[in-house]
Amino acid sequence: MINQQLINPKSIVVVGASNDIHKPGGKILKNLIDNNFKGKLYATNLKEDNVQGIKSYRNIKDLPNVDLAIIAIAAKFCPQTVDILTKEKNTRAFIILSAGFSEENKQGAELEKQVVKSINAVDGCLIGPNCIGVLNQNYTGVFTTPIPKLDPKGCDFISGSGATAVFIMESGIPNGLTFSSVYSVGNSAQLGVEEILKYMDQSFDPEKSSKVKLLYIESISKPKMLFKHARSLIKKGCKIAAIKAGGSEAGSKAASSHTGAMASSDLAVETLFRKAGIVRCYGRRELTTVASIYMHKDIKGKNIAIITHAGGPAVMLTDVLSDNGMNIPHIESPELLEKLFPGSSVANPIDFLATGTAEQLATIIDFCENKFENIDAMAVIFGSPGLFNVYDVYDVLDEKMKTCKKPIYPILPSLINAKDEINYFIAKARINFPDEVVFGKALTKIYNTPKPALEDIKLPEIDKPKIRAIIDNAKQGYISPAEIQGLLDAVKIPRVGEAVVKTRQQAIKEANILGLPVVMKVVGPVHKSDVNGVVVNVNDDETVGKEFDRMMKIKDTTSIMLQPMLSGTELFAGAKYEPKFGHIILCGLGGIFIEVFKDISSGLVPVSKQEALAMIKQLKAYKIIKGVRGQQGIDENVFADIITRLSALLMTAPEIIELDINPLLGKKDKIIAVDARINISQISDINSTFSDY
Ligand code: ADP
Ligand code: MG
């Protein structure tokens, strides 16, 4: 676990320090010196007694005791070095910069194991190997530049890639984004992104800790740890934005059901982020823009005033905000208009023309802050055509940002004409958003990210003993229609009446009991329609008999199922087990819609009624569910109830690795399952499936 020796070391040794600042062992020592590390600093080097003015030891055994070792020597020498430091020098924190470990080959993986073993033996902590290091308020233990402005309220940033960490900082720093800490976890041999986030959660201090956390993740090995601490931090008032790169589709290709094919592991990431309340970003610029917005005051609603001295950017910002669910409310104020030059407009965007002054900007902001109750935040666009300087405008902006309760976002586009003024503005600890559309997208992304899901959720009552009995007695693989019926009945998901028959006579008899017209389906093949194994609207005994004979000849068919012919909107609900994440429930419109539009919503089990409703509302087809143009809709509460019942089923029977109910036929307040497939298997982490959600 992370310890104080890593966070606030009293002494640091750079093992493999160099006078050549183009080497990691040279640059990191320089960074530590240049940024005034306050504790004791040592170096080791086989040939030197002094490196960059710091006392250096040729033999590591001669070192005094030291809290933190930053190691920049070849991988093969690391195990022995770490062993000596842990056993003889009381070193309890390690940052290994060197590559050549598990990322390279088997021998490297072995070296990594040895290092971790020595460090674990003394309860120490390890960052890396194969990383750029760590920097925080206490020391700048990275071998790269730039070193960001270190600000206790800046971002805490954890990165699974060292180079990407540098590029992300480079994306944010020029606009004024500051950092509180940066952790590059490299191979995550002992501590990964998840463990660091856990530490940030457990050590969170509402007064002192930064409230903005940024993550760059390449693989999530402990999704539940990530979820638990992300949600916990967000509940404590933090904001988290993350990039998860590399959504592999490979796993989903093998799946045989619709749900399986659509529920890729990337969907699992997406679903987990949403449940935790993490804003998911897809690029560096987006991540640092979201972070920059989070560095401003909290926005209380979705109503934005766009204050501008140029039409174009205001129109573009209006478009992006309103296209993504935010609002640019109409403003009427002759009183304000009177204070601006003729030709100005206050309707929102508030355009005070190219000749607009700093004083006018102050007046507009005051109106938005105090008089316009339908305004939650202000975006101020102010550049320069290069005729005169705009220091006075940026001074007003800075002043108003201090005093106003509503957030003000500065969009200062003139990176060349107003370069000096923008730098002057940023030097006042301000952040610039150079591009209004990038800003607008990030703002709406934050706005559209839901709050974390509730912890204590009430799931519907279901017949658990019956479910367990069916599952425990079922064979692995796709279970029988009778077993499916049993499970649906145990969780009270309404299903169509049905009969399974093996002879022609039985078929005709049962069809009449169920009531003609009926639907006939093969039992055996997984995808029945694909093998011509579904006939709808069978209206007389003769056709029942004829279809029976035909269908029994279809490959893998063991019997025929009969159902009454129902009507209604086709809906779909399904679930898939994703290793380590647990079960993902999906819903959408059924039938052909799902194949063509891929319009599905997802939720991680357990799914509460509230989450289920949110899933339904998120569908593009939500309007169809509500009922469009005179067509009767479906009660979304009934659909949401079915989703929570599925959630309860999966919690009782985690062995269900795939489940597909497609379609459910929905009419007003009745939704009835007419086709279901359930695949069961023993899963390895069965006992921990839901413990952390
Ligand atoms: P599969 O998915 O294996 O091809 P289904 O049982 O889903 O087989 O049947 C295919 C289609 O037939 C459904 O999507 C639905 O449109 C229609 N269908 C199936 N059962 C019924 C039923 N009882 N009433 C009305 N239509 C049905
Ligand atoms: Mg089907």
Strand order of the largest sheet: 3-4-2-1-5-6-7
**What structural class do you assign from the helix and strand content?**
alpha/beta
Beta strands, count: 29
Shape: flat
Identify low-pLDDT runs: 251-256
Question: Could you describe the 3D structure shown?
Answer:
This protein is of the alpha/beta class and 693 residues long. 37% of the residues lie in helices and 21% in strands. It has 25 helices and 29 strands. The strands form five sheets. The protein has a seven-stranded mixed sheet with strand order 3-4-2-1-5-6-7, with helices on both faces. Strands 9-8-11-10-12-13-14 form a seven-stranded mixed sheet, with helices on both faces. The radius of gyration is 31 Å and the shape is flat. The model is unreliable at 251-256 (pLDDT under 50). Adenosine-5'-diphosphate (ADP) binds next to strand 21, strand 22 and strand 27.
List keywords for this structure.
single chain, about 700 residues, alpha/beta, seven-stranded mixed β-sheet, binds adenosine-5'-diphosphate, binds magnesium ion
Task: Characterize this entry briefly.
This protein has 25 helices and 29 strands. Residues 251-256 have low confidence and may be disordered.
